[in-house]
Structures are given as C-alpha cells and as structure tokens.
TrEMBL record:
Listed EC numbers: 2.4.1.-
Highest taxon listed in the record's lineage: Eukaryota
Compartment annotation: Golgi apparatus membrane
Protein name: Polypeptide N-acetylgalactosaminyltransferase
Gene Ontology terms: biological process: protein O-linked glycosylation
Record's bilayer topology term: Single-pass type II membrane protein
UniProt keyword terms in alphabetical order: Disulfide bond, Glycoprotein, Glycosyltransferase, Golgi apparatus, Lectin, Manganese, Membrane, Metal-binding, Signal-anchor, Transferase, Transmembrane, Transmembrane helix
Family under the similarity heading: Belongs to the glycosyltransferase 2 family. GalNAc-T subfamily.
Domain named Ricin B lectin: residues: 458-575
This protein's pathway: Protein modification; protein glycosylation
Record flagged with keyword Transferase: yes
Gene name of the encoded protein: RvY_14024-1
Length: 580
C-alpha cells in the first residue's frame, strides 16, 4: 500500500487486527512534567521550550519515518474540546461591543484557555499515516492588523503546542500597523515567554495583508513558510502532512482543510463530513468550493491522500520560501485584502508548480460576518478588491478576463495601475496560458460556471415615468426584486441582460415566484440562458415563458402582467451607473 508519493498508509483493517508498534517519534506527555529537562538542542534528546507550565512541548526521537500522532490530553474548562461557550444574558449583552470592534465575541474568547484542547476533526484514516521525519523547518507567518488579543495569542499557543518543536523554526508575527494598545507594548512582553521562538516585526505604515505576508516571508528563517490568519487554532498533527509533498517537490504549495470556529461561541465546526472539496471560482472571481471531481478522486489510492486544487481560500498555506520569492511573492500592487489567492494560484499553476490540498491537516479559522477594520488611506480610493482582481485578470487570465468583465462590467473601466513588472515576470518564467490552466487544472469551473455570453444591456434599470426609481433586490438571493430610489452605485441595482435572455444581479438571477412577483434566485447551475427579453421599441421587459411584461405596482413591487404598451407602469430603461 505505497502511495504515489512513497508515503505509507497503514490500512485500517490491518491496524485493527494487529496494532502497529508504537510509532516513532514518541510524544512526551507535556512540558508540565518535563520542565526540569535541559534543552539539549540536539535531535534525539529531549528538548523543552519555555518553562511555562501552560505550554506543552512535544518531544521526539529521530527515525526515518514516523507517525507523529500526539497523545491527546483531555482538559476541562470553557470551550475545551471545541464545545460552545454559553454566556449569561448580561455577558452576551456586554459582548456586543467586542463583537463590533473585532468581529468576534470577546467575552467568550477571554473565558477560554489559550491552550485549550480541540477535537480531532480529521478523517479517521489520518492517524495511520507515516511521514518522513526529516522534514524542513517552518516559519509560521501571522499577519495581523488590530486583532483581538486572546484570539491572536490562542493562535500562537496552538502552533507552539501542536507543532513538533524541531520542525518549528519560529512563529513570526507581522504587525500591519495596529494602533490598539494591547497589541503594542504588551505583545512585546508577552512573547518573551516563548524564549525566542516567537518573533515580531512591525510595519512602519499600513501595508495591507498581502504586502505584510511578503514582508513576513522575506524576514522568515525557515526553509518553508506557513501563512496563518491571526484567529486560528491548528489541529492535531497539522504540519507533517503539509510538509511531505513539499519534500517530494518544492514547487508544490500545500493547503490544509479549514474548519470553522464560531465567532460567537467558539465552537469548532468540523468541515469533513465524508466528502472532500477543492477551491474554484465563478466568473465574478468569487471563491467557491466544489466536491472533488471523480478524475482527481480516482487518481489517488487513499481517501486522505493530498489532491490537486485550482485555488484556495487564501489565508492558510505552506510554500517553500525560496520558491515563493522566486515567483516574486505576491504582486506588490495588491492592496489590503482580496484577490491575492488567485494571483498566487494562477502564477503557481501556469508557471510550472502545483497546489495540493491535504485532507489530514486541519486548522480552525474564525470567519467573521464583516470586516472589522478600515482600509486606511485607501478608504476613499475606490473599490480595492475589484482593482486587485483586475490586476490579476489583466496579468494572468488572457482572453478569459473578458468573462470577468461581463460579470462585473464596472471593473473594465477601473484604473489598475502599472502591470509591467508582473507581465515581465510571466514572460521570464515562461508561464503557460490561462486556457491551459482552465483545461488541465480548473476544468470543473466551466462545468458549474459556463463561459458567459456577452451582456446585451446593463446598468440601472429605471422607471421611464419616475426616473429616480430603480429595480433593486436589496440583498442577495433569496429576496424580492422591487423598485426603490436609484443610488447609482451599482450593487443590488446593477442589472445585466445577456444575449441568451438571462437577467442577473451580481451572481444571481431574476426570476418570478408562484404569484408572478419578481424575485432573485440562485441561477440554475450550469445555465447562462433565461426567459427575458427587452423590447426596445416599447421599453418593456418581457418574460418569454409567460408572454407577459414586468409592471410596477402602486406599492413599488414588481409583477408580471399582461403586456400593455400604453402603460407607463411597464416602461423601463437601462441607465449608466458610477464605478464607485
Ligand atoms: C480570507 C483569507 C485571508 C485572505 C483574504 C483575502 C482564509 C481563512 N482567510 O479572508 O487570509 O487571504 O481572504 O485576501 O482563507 N490583515 C492585515 N492587514 C490588513 C488586513 C488584514 O494584516 O490590512 C490580517 C488580518 O488581521 C488577518 C489576515 O490579515 O490576520 C486576514 O484577514 P481577514 O481575517 O480579515 O481575512 P478573511 O479571513 O476574511
Ligand atoms: Mn481570517
């Protein structure tokens, strides 16, 4: 049962019949019982980091291969084992403030130990993998801007606690110009307890997470860098499975599976439910995950073997540091947040590398419902994420960038800045076309999101009689589409009618409900056509299937009614919107 990687997986049946010899390296219990041991600094000898009883340090012995499974210690207390923290009404009320400030429940977080135990969320098979014990050392780079103290430090503690010490070069915190007090002096003092294992670099001005990560990579000492968000908890044996593919081939970037951590209760929400997913995108370049295609499933021998993925969520991944820098790191023109995962993914794949997702590496991440921080001096400089995406589309997507502009027509006219350095890099590295990438790597994108036909018309769809009133879905699907005052800013008032009759707002489609009232729905998967037709001569929006026209009702709702080209309530016109 050798895998293509030369890694061995003990099959579960065999394990049940005759339990394997205790795997090397062995894990010591905890530093708590070992604090007297000297840090010898040599492989094969017990090694202890820090004299703080709360920090658990794994010990090791050298072997050619090892199973790295850690003894799981049970603990008691709020949030232990990933169980939800329940707050009293009073506490929950107080928690609202922290929530607005950071996007998480601060009261709940502060109640939970920085060393809390978490459940093992991996597929059961993972316990039986053997990995090489000679693995490269890693710098864990954590970019942060005004993050909550306890979640940031819990991230650091989890890495220290659940990473074999001899594989951890350092945890490198990179402060992206935070201005909140506990992060300043107190943090410098706090990290002293890690005795040099945790470093801190501070930006002299706000750089955004993307340049901040590059700064981290440049300052890192490890052979491999692992990027981590500042509100994560790494899982059991998270690191060796990510390193093994990189040892095989340094141009492989590896990605862990991301479990959810609830922003209110801090409960751990396992992502693995028997199915594997990989990262793709729709044509607006919104990130999507899709079930692993059959081709990729069957290419592997074992369910939990790493598999290829076109892209990833962005935050958490391991990459050979030199390779990352040879690829130019991230495009330095990308600002604050967003799009960087496509830049790096397209670059890696098109320029000869690859991305693998690793089912046996799990890391919890707190998703928040909104961005709690501002954009700094870019706040009034336009749509940052769209400009980032435009840079990526212009450099890497060749003729396919057109589908992005069809889906986001306002972006075509945004100024994306100087791209000559990025284009020169692409030429120097002799990178393949985006068509090659779409056909050989991201082939599941068009199965779900077919190439888009051109827009026949797009803009605000306003009433001819009352030109200040526009079609509006007010939010994402499912929702009603009705009329409200035009704001000229696009968003939920930006409609696109394509040449195949699909009428869309963002990535969603306009449809009718059983009462023939207009509503916004999830577009039928794999379809780009629809029932709509705009009749220029009469300015009516006609629904083909029903042969009826959209009419505005007195209460500002929109319904399909019998077409009447004399009715002012049925007249509509597309009008331009501002780009931001
Ligand atoms: C996701 C990624 C995130 C990043 C982003 C797109 C995951 C789990 N998260 O959004 O890593 O790829 O998509 O760009 O895949 N930060 C700074 N400076 C800033 C803004 C943020 O250092 O100007 C830090 C922030 O404190 C955090 C990290 O960057 O540690 C990621 O930011 P986020 O958590 O707000 O992004 P997220 O998870 O919504
Ligand atoms: Mn995050």
């Amino acid at each position: 049962n050798e895998t293509g990687d030369g890694l061995k997986l003990k099959e579960r049946l065999a394990v049940v019949r005759s339990p394997p010899k205790p795997a090397a390296p062995h894990w010591a219990k905890t530093a708590d019982t070992q604090v007297e041991a000297e840090d010898s600094g040599e492989i094969g000898k017990p090694k202890v980091h820090g004299k703080y009883a709360s920090i658990k340090v794994p010990l090791f012995t050298e072997e050619e291969e090892g199973n790295f499974e850690e003894k799981q210690e049970r603990r008691q207390g709020p949030g232990e084992e990933g169980v939800a923290v329940n707050l009293s009404k009073e506490e929950a009320r107080k928690a609202q403030r922290g929530n607005r400030e950071y996007g998480f429940n601060q009261i709940a977080s502060d109640m939970i130990s920085l060393d809390r135990a978490i459940p093992d969320t991996r597929p059961p098979e993972c316990k039986h993998w053997q990995y090489p014990t000679k693995l490269p050392k890693v710098s864990v780079v954590i970019a942060f801007h005004n993050e909550m103290w306890s979640t940031l430090l819990r991230t650091v503690h989890s890495v220290i606690n659940r990473t074999p010490a001899y594989l951890l070069e350092e945890v490198l915190l990179v402060d992206d110009f935070s201005d909140k007090e506990p992060l300043k002096q107190a943090l410098d003092e706090y990290i002293l307890k890690f005795e040099g294992k945790v470093g801190l670099v501070r930006n002299a001005e706000r750089e955004g997470l993307i340049r901040t990560r590059s700064i981290g990579a440049k300052n890192a000492k490890g052979e491999v860098v692992f990027f981590l968000d500042a509100h994560c908890e790494v899982g059991y044996n998270w690191l060796p499975p990510l390193l093994a593919p990189i040892v095989r081939d340094r141009t492989i970037m590896t990605v862990p599976v991301i479990d959810g951590i609830d922003s209110e209760t801090f409960a751990i929400q396992p992502q693995y439910q028997g199915k594997l997913f990989r990262g793709i995108f729709e044509w607006g370049l919104l990130y999507k995950e899709t079930e692993l295609p059959e081709k990729e499933k069957t290419r592997r021998k074992h369910e939990t073997e790493p598999y290829k993925s076109p892209t990833h969520a962005g935050g958490l991944f391991a990459i050979n540091r030199q390779y990352f820098l040879q690829l130019g790191g991230y495009d330095e023109g990308l600002e604050i947040w967003g799009g960087e995962q496509y830049e790096l993914s397209f670059k890696i794949w098109q320029c000869g590398g690859s991305i693998e997702w690793v089912p046996c590496s799990h890391i919890g991440h707190i998703y928040r419902g909104f961005m709690p921080y501002g954009l700094g001096k870019l706040a009034n400089k336009g749509p940052v994420v769209s400009i980032n995406l435009k840079r990526v589309a212009e450099v890497w997507m060749d003729e396919y960038k057109e589908y992005y502009y069809i889906r986001e027509p306002l972006v075509r006219h945004l100024e994306a800045g100087d791209l000559s350095k990025q284009k020169a890099l692409r030429a120097d590295l002799n990178c393949k076309s985006f068509k090659w990438y779409m056909e050989n790597v991201a082939y599941d994108v068009v199965e779900q999101y077919p190439l888009l036909p051109a827009n026949e018309l797009w803009g605000e769809l306003r009433s001819v009689r009352d030109t200040w009133m526009c079609w509006d879905s007010h939010g994402d699907a499912p929702s009603k589409v009705d009329v409200s005052p035009c704001h000229h800013a696009g968003h939920h008032q930006l409609l696109r009618l394509n040449t195949e009759g699909q009428l869309a707002i963002g990535e969603r489609c306009v449809d009718i409900d059983s009462q023939r009232r207009l509503q916004l729905i999830y577009c039928p998967m794999g379809r780009v056509d629809g029932p709509w037709q705009y009749v220029k001569s009469t300015q009516q929006m006609k629904h083909g299937d029903k042969g009826k026209c959209v009419e505005r009702q007195p209460e500002e709702t929109l319904f399909l009614k019998t077409c009447d080209n004399q009715s002012e309530r049925q007249k509509w016109e597309f009008a331009p919107v501002k780009s931001h």
